[in-house]
Fold this sequence. Notes:
Elements: E1 6-17, E2 23-32, E3 37-42, H1 44-57, H2 84-89, H3 91-102, H4 106-109, H5 112-118, H6 122-125, E4 137-140, H7 143-146, E5 160-164, E6 183-189, E7 194-199, E8 202-207, E9 211-213, E10 230-234, E11 253-258, E12 264-269, E13 272-277, E14 281-283, H8 286-293, H9 324-343, H10 379-385, H11 388-393, E15 395-397, E16 406-408
Antiparallel strand pairs: 1-2, 1-4, 2-3, 5-6, 5-9, 6-7, 7-8, 10-11, 10-14, 11-12, 12-13, 15-16
Amino acid sequence: MEQIYIRHVELLGFEKRFFPSQHYVYMLIVKWSDLSEKLVYRRYPEIHTFHKSLKEMFPIESGAIEKRDRTIPSLPAPSWMDSQKATETRQSPLAEYCRSLINQPPHISRCGLVCSFFAVRPEDENPPAPNPTRRSETIPVSLDKFKGTISEITGPIILDTYRVIADYDKTSKHEIVLHTGDLVDIVEKCTNGWWFCQCDSKQGWVPASYLEPLDTPEEPEESEPNYAGELYITTMAYQAEQEDELSVEVGEEVAVIHKLLDGWWVVRKGDETGHVPAMFLQTTNRKESETEQNNFQRRTPPPRRSTIRNVQSIHKKGRQRLNQETYRRNSRRFAQNSKGQGRKSPRPERKNLANLPEMPASSSEPKSQTPAVPLRPSADLIMQRCTEHTRKKVSIRKPSDPASVKLAVS
């Protein structure tokens, strides 16, 4: 007997339910190869979990091996807060995702994972008992809302996927537990080293030091060192625990020369350099300072990569990190170059110096005195550089004394 497969999936809208708690479910009409049509209800987090399982089942078509080979469509990650506005916004990318998924080659669109996910469940035929005080609200898809506004609809947001290098146990309710080898989607990268991630249906904050990119051990978004430095003020005291760290007191002014994504920045204080937690630094710019204060706040900095035990990376080579001696050497070199450029005269270099008369050398004059006024150019040099109109107006007398030359300019 031929296996039944899905011919078409169409999004009808979503339903707001209040039992057992308030949540939203999407209504999908599924048309099968035996000409039957079934109505199913799915929540967005479970749709996204199905999407991740599908990518793991087909690593080539998902672009895990080569990005150029990807054919499986992308799907935005669930938002932290499940609201009606977010549910409405996701309708367009979800409808496009369903259409593109069914148009995949048969080994994907007709696989057991796809068919089982869209198969009718008991709760689809018998929805949960309604809340006695509030009835469920059904909101159908409005085609007029998207008609003629295709150019205004942005594509789905593709989140960066990272891999967990070691087990991590959460220390607060805002964090999530991670295990070695887990793949997480990065929703937000905070400058203090705590990143908001999603792993399956869980969402929460994790330290960036426990994560690594899939393609390369290096962070493509990490900035290069800026040895000119950016002035920051320390908001908390920190006592160095490792050799490459720097102790600071409250209210000290330091220059940040390298902002690392793991939340440990390299700062310069006098002739010393070292790592300091970014969360203990505050910029002197008020607007930027207010923005940083709105970010996720923690009392403790994230752990450093060097303190993590049992690290299991998929990359043969680790991240290339500069040592503090390199930071100090480059800082001194930058300072010397800056002083040298400051002594250079701002006046442009003179050209055709060979045509100018040589100044007599005077060994008796001290070097600290003001330079002497250069000699007047010769008459021939003046005639070469003046305009045709001036040349006609200039009369040159050559008396017996060649040292005295009089120019009459009208």
